[in-house]
Write a structure and sequence with these properties.
Length: 171
Amino acid sequence: MRPSHETEYCEFVAANLIPLRRFAYLVCGDWHRAEDAVQTVLTKLYVDWHRTVRRDPQAYVRRMVVNALHDVHRRSWFRRERPAETLPDTAYDRAEATEDRLVLLDALAKLPVRRRATLVLRFWEDRSIEDTARIMGCSETTVKSQTARGLHTLRDLLPNSMTERIEVIPT
């Protein structure tokens, strides 16, 4: 890699590592899987950086993260895993999180990866329908339908006290 490309890559990673990890966590609901996915994506990105700079790196990298997380679900070992009754101690301190946040994250984790990614992009990262479609590599109509279905499922999963706060969002 040319020195200028390497500098650009390092600057991109320094500026985007934390938002990418947060995005990956919100999509998959697991800090370890999120960090693994981001690390895998950044390694692939380093190799292809000279081609990536011609595109929109923000959208391209988020799409790569969604694909990396989606690939994990296709692996047979992942499908054989079963959730445990009690969770082991984790690096994430749930004691500091609010009850609503925990309930919302649990409900979000029950959504399929692509639907969850669509909701995270639209509402957590405040992306437009056009941006979300570009990042996800799908049509704007798909983003609208995934958003509507995702919100509908969230309303079913959340307690009534929280569903009142999920407004009907025009698409």
